[in-house]
Structure formats: C-alpha cells, structure tokens
Amino acid sequence: MTEAILSVTGLRSGYGRTVICDDISLQVSAGQITCIIGPNGAGKSTLLKTIAGVVPAIDGSIRVAGVQMAGLPAARVAGSGMAYVPQEANVFRALTTHENLAMGGWQDEGRTQAARDRVYDMFPDLKPLARVPAGNLSGGQRQMVAFGMALMLEPQVLLLDEPSAGLSPLMVGEMFETVRRVNAEGVAILMVEQNALQGLKTAHEGIVMAAGRIAMQGAASELLNSADVSELYLGSRI
Amino acid sequence: MNLQIFVNALVNAALIAPPAMAFSLLFGVLKFPNFAIGGYITLGAFAAYTFNVPLGLPLPLATLGAMLFTGFVVWLAHVWVFKPMQDQSAVTLLVVSIALTLILESVVRLFFSADVRGFDIPLERPWKFWGARITREQVEIIACAVVLATGLHVLLRHTRIGRAMRAVADNPMLAAIRGVDAAKITALTTVLCGAIFGLTGVFAGLDLVIEPLVGWNLTIPIFAAAILGGIGSPYGAILGALLLGLAEELTILVLPSTYKIAVGFVIIAIFLLLRPQGLFGTAEIKK
Amino acid sequence: MSAYLVSMATYAGFFMILALALNLQWGLTGMVNFGIAGFYALGAYTSGLLSAKAGWPLGLSIPMAIAAGFAAGGLVALLSMRLREDFLAIVTLGVGEVIRLIVLNEDQITEGPRGLRIEAQPFQSLMAPENYPVFYLGFVAFFVAITYWICERIRKAPMGRTLRAIREDDVVAGVLGKNVFRHRIQIFAIGGGFMGLAGALYAHYSQNISPEVFMPTVAMFIWMSVIVGGAGNNRGLLIGAGTVIMFLEGTRFFGDVLPWLDAETMSSVRIITIGLLLIVTLRLRPRGLLPEPKFTYTRDKIAG
Fold this sequence. Notes:
The complex is a heterotrimer of chains A (238), B (287) and C (304).
Chain A: E1 4-15, E2 18-29, E3 33-37, H1 44-52, E4 57-64, E5 67-68, H2 74-77, E6 82-85, H3 97-104, H4 112-122, H5 139-151, E7 157-161, H6 169-184, E8 188-192, H7 196-202, E9 205-210, E10 213-219, H8 220-225, H9 227-234
Parallel strand pairs in A: 3-8, 3-9, 6-7, 7-8
Antiparallel strand pairs in A: 1-2, 1-4, 4-5, 9-10
Helix pairs in contact in A: 3-5
Chain B: H1 3-30, H2 37-52, H3 59-82, H4 90-112, E1 127-129, E2 132-134, H5 136-158, H6 160-170, H7 172-177, H8 182-207, H9 214-229, H10 234-254, H11 260-274
Antiparallel strand pairs in B: 1-2
Helix pairs in contact in B: 1-5, 1-6, 1-8, 1-9, 1-10, 2-3, 2-4, 2-8, 2-9, 3-8, 5-6, 6-8, 9-10, 9-11, 10-11
Chain C: H1 2-29, H2 36-52, H3 58-80, H4 85-105, H5 107-110, E1 116-117, H6 132-156, H7 158-166, H8 170-176, H9 178-206, E2 208-209, H10 217-229, H11 234-250, H12 252-257, H13 263-284, H14 299-303
Antiparallel strand pairs in C: 1-2
Helix pairs in contact in C: 1-6, 1-9, 1-10, 1-11, 2-3, 2-4, 2-9, 3-9, 10-11, 10-13, 11-13
C-alpha cells in the first residue's frame, strides 16, 4: 500500500443546518485514481466541494500530505498541492486560454511560464487556441483548459467533479483517456462520476456513496464485479 | 453638416467614455446597474472644487485629490452598503443605489448649496479651426480620456491584477478556487472605478458647470454608452460614447435642447429591445 | 397643526395608491416600473387639462386619467416583456422622464414650468371651504380602500396565484403560453390605471401642477415604500408609504422648531434621512417590515 496523499476522516458538511455528507472517511493514495459513484443526491459533489473548501466542513479532518485543510476557505486551499475542477463554469469564459492558464498559476506567478509550457506539452491541442476566449471553445476544449488550469501549480492530487458531464459520447472516451494521461504524470485523482462503468474502469479504487455516507469502498475492479454495484449502478448504464 | 457637431460629439465622448468603461467594469463585479455613479461624479466635482478654490491647490493636484477622495467614498459605500446587501435582488440594489445618489447629492447641497460654480482657471479664448471652436479645457479632457482609456486597456489586458479583475467579474467562485482573494479584488475594482468617477466629476466641472445635479445628468448618457457598446465590453463603451454624442448633437438640430436627455433613454430602449448584447458585448443582459 | 396632519395624511393616500399599484405590477408580474412619476404626471395632466382647458366635468376627466394610465401601462408592458428586470428599470425610468420632458417643453398646452392652474374640485359646492380638506382626505381614503380591495382580490384570484408562482421563472411562463402573457400585460395596465387615478386625485387636490413635482424622485419614494414595508405584502406597503411620507413631510416640523434652517437645508436633510431609512431598514430587516407571506399549503386543503 502506497502512502495516502489525501486523507479524510469523520468529515461532515452541508448547507446551513442541513447535513448533506456525514461521517466520511477516505484515503487517496499517491498516484492513484479514485472514483466516487452513487445515485443522484448521494452527496458526491458536496463531498468534493467540502474537500476543496468551497462548502465549509462542519466537523472532521481533511489532510493533504499531512497538512490540515478543514476549515480553510477555497482561496487558501488552492496551492496546497490539491486542485479542484468544478463540474460547471470551470473556465473563465471571458479570458483567453492563455489567460485562463495564468489564472491557474495565480498563487505562484514565478512558475507560470514553465508550468504553461508543460500544460501545452500535455495538451498540444490547446496551443493554437491560446488567444481564443474560453467561452468560444467547444465543450471538450473547455474541459482541457479547466484541467490545464488546475495543473498549473503542479498539484499532487486533482479533484474532478463529473468530468464527463455534458460531453458528447465520443468526447467522453477521450476525456477518460486524458484523466489517465494526467495520472500517468504522477498526479493522484479523486473524481465523482455519473458514468459509473467508465469511471470505475478508469480508476484504481472505487467508493460508492448513498444518502450522504460511504456505502462501499474497495478496489475498482472488485466493485465492477460486485453483484450489488452492478445491479444498482451499472446495469442501467450499459 | 458642420464640423462643430463632430467636435462637440468628440468632447462629449471624452467625458462619457471613461465612466462608461468604469460602469461596465463595476457591473461585471456587482451585477446590477449602479445609479450611485451620479452621486460619485457629483462628489468628485465638488471635492476637486474644494481643493482648487477654497484651498487654492492647482487643478492637477486638486484632481488627484478628488480621485483619491471619491475612490475612498466608493470603497466605503461598497463595505457599508452594497457588500452586506449582496444577497438582495438586483432591483432592490438598484433602488438602494438611487437612494445613495440622492444622499450624496443632498450632502453636497448641504455644504455647498445649489449654486453653480466653476474651477479657478484662467479664461481663454477658444481655438478656432475651419469654423469650429474648441476650448483648451476640452482639448485637455480629450487627451486625458485617451490616456485613461489606454491605461485601462493595458491594466485589464496586460497586468496580473487586471486579469484577476476580469476573472473575478467573470466567475468569482472559480477565481476563489484558483486562490484569488475575490473580495479584495472586488474592493480594488470599486476603488479604481471610484477614482474614474471622481475624474469624470472634474471633467464635467471643466466642460459644464459644478452643481449638485451634474452627476445625475450624466448618469443616463453613461448607461446609454455602456449599453450601446455592450455591457462587459469596455472598448465598446468608447464607441458607444461617440455614437451617443453624435446622436445627441443631431437631436438638438431638430428638437429643443431640453430633450437631449431623452436621446439616451431612447437609445437604451432600442438597444435593449433589439440588440441587448450591444455592439460588441456578450449577451449578458438578456433575460 | 391639525390642518397640517390632514394634508400629510392626504399625501400619504396618494403614495399608498401608487405603492399598491407598483406592488401589483412588480409583485404579480415581476416587471419593474421606475416610471411611476410619469404615470402619476399622465393622470394629473390628463384630468387637469381636460377639466381646466376643455371644460370637461370631473366625472369624465378623472376616469379619462385612469384610462390614460391604463393604456400607457399596457403599452410599456407590451414593449418590455423581454427585458431583464434591472434594465427594464432604466427603460421605464426613461418613459417617466420623457413624459415629464414633454410636459415641460410643450408649454403651449401644459403651461410647462409656469404650472397648470386647476379650479375644479370634486363635490366642492356641497360644503363649506373650511371642511373641504377633511372631506377630501375621506375621498382619497375611499379610493385607497377600493384600490387595496381590488389589489387583494387580484392577488388571491387563481390567476394571481399562478402569476406569483411563476414570476421568478419565465420559462414556465412561456410554457403556459399566451394566456399568462396577456394577464401580465393586463395587470401592468391596471397598475398604470391606479397610478393615473392617484395623479388625478393629486391634481384636483393641489389645484396647481407643474413638471418639477414629477421628478424621478417620486418613483424612488414609492419604491422605498414598497421595499421598506416588505415587497409583496399589501398591508406592509401601506405602512411603508405612511412611514416614507412621515419622514418626508414630518421633517417639516423641524423647520418650525429650528427656524435658522432654511428651506434648502431642510429639503437636503429630508432626502438624506429618507435615504438612510431605506439603507438602515434593509441592513436590519432585509425583507422589509412586513415580509410577503410564504405560500403555505395546509394539509387539510390537500386532503379536502
């Protein structure tokens, strides 16, 4: 077992007095892909937002490489070695690709030039689009800009909220390929996916959430073969 | 057609364009049409007047003082009024912003009465060329407006802080996720816009007169220029200001000059109904 | 002193009709109107000109004022269905200003800034002049009551409830189709009619109207009444209108107590006070003094 880069224990969060996620404990190992699946309203996205600091944690701990993050606002979590890509509105539409990437490197402007070259190496398709406002890009291109922006500060773990949502079927496969490529660079990934089958096939580890709690946890291949999981979440998808 | 119309339109555009750009910028971060700009402009004009006439400072220095003062007041308004109310609807905020303009106007009236005033500057004969007249102050206003517009362009497009301002206006949540202190950037934007409104007050005092209603009278033309050019497109605002200036000057040829203020409204109505994205903007003000 | 209170209450009546009309428009259709001063002026000048210049009896000129407001309301609503509400605010403000500018400039008809003198007053000949102000207060109160009653009826009618339910959501409105569209225009027009009525009542009360009365600040005061009172709640906004008039007119007392304050200073202080009233109210009670009651579906109703 490799060491955990992201370690969440006893996490509880919600909006106002409504608790959405409760008693969540999970670990993401360095360099691994972990996929969270579960029915609509299970609290998957809220969990990711809480880890990223967008939704405040009520209780529990979130450690990135041993450093406590729970209670910090999103702006302080950025640059901590963890980067979050929201599901919607995940690029600055009025800014060009180039400027979007610069915003990704906001916290460490000195590294921006080198980091941007690295992102363009990883996503060569973006290079010719450098001067195009992100609002004019296609859905797939925007998703690449969003990934690229999140990678600017060389995070050790990337949080992806439903990266395949809204993409055409053709683009979905390509997107999961991109997730694997980013992971191959040594970045651990924690992603929430509606597309449970593809998500688990891409991931090393899997987590099933239901009603705000973790229902099942294990190797992705085990979950794929588990009778319960396939009946509940995979059957309708195939 | 005579050249004077174009000269007047140009001066008008130089007066309107910078605050229209600032209004666009402010709309980007606050998301409602802020009528308080009228009060801010009036305040700028009277602040500069106070520095210039009773205190005897030279006009450039008084202008700088007025910009700082107005920037500070706009920041106060942001902290005390608009920020705590950010969950209110756009219409409520709009009513509050009109109330703020009325308050500022009345405060000015309390201290200065409604008399018409002017800066302490030597009176000079206007320059004449090809039958058109232009005063030295008008030339200075045009020059300042060009410098300001260029400066704003450089700031927004080519500096780190300007990029962050555009990013926060575009998507404050994502900006926070990427580590930008969105509240600080918003405050900075309001101060910058405040300084521009202060400067507009000085320009208005030079070209028109200094009186409590000076800001209110400019508010609708500023909105019209910003909407004409396209909200969210500061450069469109410049063209919008030019076209509005021309439209106003041409109207005076056929209608009594008191109808001039209606031109702005008519342009706003036509554009909002037929082309809400303006000439260049994004379709942000559609329903 | 008591004459003063009567006059203040009469003014509060005009404001209450305007505020009820605005709440009808905004509260039910979600369409904002910042041109209130224009509708008010339209009513005042329609009835004023018809009676003073054309010699019409008040029994015809006042209904014409209502009709003028109604028609203008329908027209504005028809033109502005597509606008986002804060920009509709600017357009309607423009409508109000254009009406004022016309009144100001076409002085051959309207007498412009000189002011239009109106002799006719309703039921004037039936009583002694010293009793007339109290009678007029009752006359205005009667119309406030009628306006309130009609507004409540519309609000509680099935169509009113539907309109309120969908005012936040134009997609739903679109799906429900033309019927809703037509009702929204009708309601906006009815609101315009009430504003015209308020204008006519004002014209025959003050007997002298001039354009400077119909500045956009009037719209501001009415909006403040609605927001301070609690948007959507008709009882709340009656309180709101009363409060605003109290601040607006009541501060005149200071003028009597503190004679060294001149009229100019007094009017500035008044505006500052009323502006602060709005800001402080919103800071302390973000939903106004009497907020709009939430939709409640009681169990019995569903079961029954």
